[in-house]
Write a structure and sequence with these properties.
Elements lengths: L1 H4 L10 E5 L8 H15 L8 H9 L3 E6 L4 E10 L4 E9 L8 H16 L4 E6 L2 H10 L2 E3 L8 H5 L7 H6 L8 E5 L7 H37 L1
Parallel strand pairs: 4-5
Antiparallel strand pairs: 1-2, 2-3, 3-4, 5-7, 6-7
Helix pairs in contact: 2-3, 4-5, 5-8
Amino acid sequence: MNKIKSSKKIPPDNRFVVAFASEQHTGFAGQICDEMAESAKARGTGIAKRSPEYVAGKMREGKAVIALTTEGEWAGFCYIETWEHGMYVANSGLIVAPQFRKSGLAKRIKEKIFELSRSKYPDSKIFGLTTGLAVMKINSELGYEPVTYSELTTDDEFWAGCKSCVNYEILMSKGRTNCLCTAMLYDPKDHYQPEETAAHFNMKKKVYERLLRIKRHWLVKGFFKKQNEAK
């Protein structure tokens, strides 16, 4: 596309405006939901399915971040969800339009939604689940640390959001204590500095990559073995 070609001349940071979403952005809700679904399908994973009405509601509540090009084209999105009366906060639904991926935009959106989360919920623990090293790296640069599932919210509604994931049965077979995703957490009352967590990630990157491969292999293999034995 022409816009991608033009990125060689325009610094990436100047192609996009990353801002707190509001009523004026609700017209993009349908497009955002469609891309979330397509992206999940392409990855072979699932996400908590959200309707355009739900996404638009997050915009109106001031609990979302949107990225647009300087020409007004939708480029990326992310929103906030809270659990256990605000004790936990999740930055959910991170999505970047296909033509703008690998531009550094995902990192900018994550930084902005993290800023919004810290502003609205300064005492809350911020967490996320991810299957990718790229998101792990971004999270580490913000101060997140890999944790066990036991350190996440126990709210059933949150875990119910995993039902649309192809790995949901694996999650439940492990009693919600493990799955293919890696859990990461930022605890405002007990955390390392972002420089430390980023350095630790870079040092352990190959280890994490290997663990993700092993986890994917053994969890899936073990699950299907039990399924076959039960028949």
